[in-house]
């Protein structure tokens, strides 16, 4: 089994089987969310996969993890921290395909367990949606199936959405397909989540996104 960093007093906000929709409004907020989430997974002995928009964003995440007390080079060399970009994960050859990405996830879970990790934790910046690449209309299907998948394996995922740039109809789909939401530092159960069959059939309601975010700010269903 791999050797991992172990620390007391770790965050209890995140657990296996969760599928978190993280809404952010600045690069600093996005990195803070990702680094807290991934550092927690590394301390628990999980393999963590981070998918960023660019190599520069990966470097910035490494710095944030280092500031959080993670020995990044050691985690990478042991296979505990895996770095990827949009181009080799979400939009291979400029195209998004749900089946391909879910297939990669299935193999990643199996590989993590075979290497002796306690599970898989993924974190992906979804800003690739801004460009509207071919296949991006599959987002709601992908997120709905992903939520279902995380419930059945020792894994968890955080999908990070830029509120400033991602189209409102995609944000609405995101708020329908994640069981919990991280907003302005608060992690809450998502009252707008719907079962996969319903989520994949319902039309997007972009005009309700800001209202939903306001409701989430005042939600009492904290995790």
Annotation keywords:
single chain; 223 residues; alpha/beta; 17% strand; disordered N terminus
Strand runs, count? 7
SSE order, as H and E? EHEHHEHEHEHEEHH
β-strand amount: 15-25%
Largest sheet: 7 strands, mixed
Amino- and carboxy-terminal Cα gap: 31 Å
Number of helices: 8
What strand line-up does the widest sheet have?
A: 3-2-4-5-1-6-7
Q: Approximately how much helix is present in the residues?
A: 40-55%
How would you characterize this protein structure?
It is a single chain. This protein is an alpha/beta fold. The chain is built from eight helices and seven strands; from the N terminus they run βαβααβαβαβαββαα. It has a seven-stranded mixed sheet with strand order 3-2-4-5-1-6-7, with helices on both faces. The radius of gyration is 16 Å and the shape is globular. The two termini are 31 Å apart.
Map the helices and strands:
Blueprint: E1 19-24, H1 27-43, E2 47-52, H2 55-67, H3 72-77, E3 81-85, H4 98-114, E4 120-125, H5 139-150, E5 155-162, H6 168-177, E6 180-183, E7 186-189, H7 196-201, H8 209-217
Parallel strand pairs: 1-5, 1-6, 2-3, 2-4, 4-5
Antiparallel strand pairs: 6-7
Short description:
By secondary structure, this protein is α/β, with parallel strands linked by helices. It has helices at about 25-45, 55-65, 70-75, 100-115, 140-150, 170-175, 195-200, 210-215; strands spanning about 20-25, 45-50, 80-85, 120-125, 155-160, 180-185, 185-190.
């Amino acid at each position: 089994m791999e050797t991992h960093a172990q620390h007391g007093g770790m965050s209890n906000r995140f657990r296996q089987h969760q599928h978190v929709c993280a809404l952010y409004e600045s690069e600093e907020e996005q990195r803070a969310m990702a680094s807290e989430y991934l550092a927690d997974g590394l301390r628990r002995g999980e393999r963590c996969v981070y998918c960023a928009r660019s190599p520069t964003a990966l470097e910035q995440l490494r710095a944030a993890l280092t500031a959080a007390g993670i020995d990044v080079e050691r985690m990478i060399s042991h296979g505990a921290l895996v770095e990827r970009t949009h181009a080799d994960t979400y939009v291979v050859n400029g195209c998004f395909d749900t089946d391909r990405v879910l297939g990669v996830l299935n193999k990643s879970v199996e590989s993590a367990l075979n290497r002796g990790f306690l599970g898989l934790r993924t974190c992906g910046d979804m800003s690739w949606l801004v460009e509207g690449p071919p296949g991006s209309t599959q987002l709601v299907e992908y997120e709905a199936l992903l939520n279902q998948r995380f419930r059945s394996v020792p894994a968890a995922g955080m999908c990070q959405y830029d509120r400033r740039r991602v189209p409102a109809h995609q944000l609405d789909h995101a708020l329908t397909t994640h069981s919990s939401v991280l907003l302005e530092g608060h992690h809450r159960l998502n009252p707008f989540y719907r079962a996969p069959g319903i989520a994949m059939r319902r039309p997007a309601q972009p005009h309700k996104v800001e209202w939903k975010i306001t409701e989430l700010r005042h939600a009492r269903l904290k995790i």
